[in-house]
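Researcher: Following up on the earlier apo prediction. This time include the ligand. It's flavin-adenine dinucleotide, with the SMILES given after the sequence.
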Amino acid sequence: MDFKFSEEHEFFRSAIRDAVDRLIRPKAQEIDESNEFPTELWKEFAQLGYLGLRHPEKYGGMDADVMMSMIFYEEMARGSCGFAMSVTMQILMGTYFVERFGSEEIKQRVLVPAIKGEKIGTICFTEDQSGSDLGGTKTTATAKDGGWVLNGRKQWITNGPICDFCTVLAQTDPQKGMDGLSFFLVEKGMDGFATGQDLNKLGSRGSITGELIFDNVYLPDENLLGDGPGNGVKLATDILNEVRVMTALNACSIADEAMRDARGYALERDAFGKKIAKYQLIRSKFADHWAWYEASRLMAYKAAWMIQEGMNCQFECMMAKMFATEMCVKSVDEASRVYGGNSFAMEYPQQRFLRDSRFLLFGGGCHEVLRNAIGAAFLRAGKSGR
Ligand SMILES: Cc1cc2nc3c(=O)[nH]c(=O)nc-3n(C[C@H](O)[C@H](O)[C@H](O)COP(=O)(O)OP(=O)(O)OC[C@H]3O[C@@H](n4cnc5c(N)ncnc54)[C@H](O)[C@@H]3O)c2cc1C
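Model: Understood. Below is the ligand-bound prediction.
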C-alpha cells in the first residue's frame, strides 16, 4: 500500500491551491452575498486551462486523470462552494457526454468553446415530480422526421439559467420505464428552448440555479447521446460515481475550512479568564473533526483510486459520499458552536459554511436513497467487501 500522491499530483495540488487562495477565497463572501455569477473569475479559470481539466489536449483540455480531477474538486471547495459548483458542473457533468458521445462537429461547436470558457454547459435530471426517482421522468423525446421532439421541464439545474447547452434526460419509451431513458444535447437558440429565473438559494450561492423549459424542441438524431435510445440510466451510473466522490471531497474541504476558521477564533477568544481553546469540551470538537476528516478523505480517495483502476466501486462511491457529507454537516455545526453567538453574524464565514454544507446532503443522491441501495447490497452479499 502507498498513501502518497505522485509528484505530479502534488505539483498540481499546489498550483490549484495557489489559484484558489489568490483568486477565489478573497471573493468568497462577496460571491455569497451578491448571489451573482462571477464572470471575471470564470474567465480567469478558463485562461488557466482548468475548464478543460478532464478533456483531451486535442480539444484544448489538460487530459487529467481521475485522481488529479479529484484533487482539483477538493481544492476548489476551499474557496467558494457556489463557484466550485459552477466550475465542476462545467468540467465534469456539463461536458462529459458531449466529449464521450458527441460527433466531431458537436465537439467543435460545443466542447471546444466550453473549455475556453466561452460556452456554459449543464446536465438535467431533476423535474418537479422526479429527483431521486429517475424512473418518474416526465420529459419525453418522441421520434419524428429522422430526429426527436423534446417536451418537458427540468428544475434545480446548476448553470441552467445561464447555460448555452445542456444534456437532458428524457423518456424515449414510456412503456420501458428506467430502460426507456436517454440523454439528448440541447443548445441555446433552438426553437422552443427557454431558461427560467434563477433561484434564491440557501447555500452554494453564486452558482446560478433554475428551471429549463422544452416546448416541442426539434433535435437532429446526432443530438441523441450514447449508442441508441434507452441507455440513459447506464450512462448516468458511470458519471454518478465520479460525482459522488467529488461531493465527498467537497465536504472534506468545507468541514476543514470551517474548523480551521474556528481554530483561530478559539485561540483568541477569552471566557472565564482563559482562552476557550484551553477547555477540553472545545478541544474535543477539533479532535472529532480531525478523525472524521481523515476517515472521510481516506474513503473518498480510495473510491477515486478504484474509479481510476476501472474497478466496480458503485457502493464505495456511495458510502464515501454519504459518510463525508454527514461528517461535514457535523463538523460545521461544531465549528459554529466554537463561535458562540458570533456564528449567527453574517460578517463571519461560519454562517456560510453552515448553509453550504446542507447542499452536499442532496447533490449526488439523498442519503435515505443511498442507504437503501447500500443496505440491500450488503444483505445480498452478506459481507462488507472483505
Ligand atoms: C443547489 C442544488 C443544485 C442542483 N443542481 C442540479 C443539476 O444541476 N441538475 C439536476 O438534474 N439536479 C440538480 N439538483 C437536484 C438534486 O439532484 C435533487 O435535489 C436530488 O436528486 C434529490 O431529489 P429531490 O430534491 O427531488 O428529492 P426527492 O427525491 O423528492 O426526495 C425527498 C426525500 O424523500 C426521500 N426519498 C426518496 N426516495 C426514497 C426512497 N426510495 N426511500 C427512502 N427515502 C426516499 C429522499 O431521501 C429525501 O429525503 C440540484 C439541487 C440543489 C439543491
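Model: The mean pLDDT is 96.
Researcher: Noted. I'll compare it with the apo version next.
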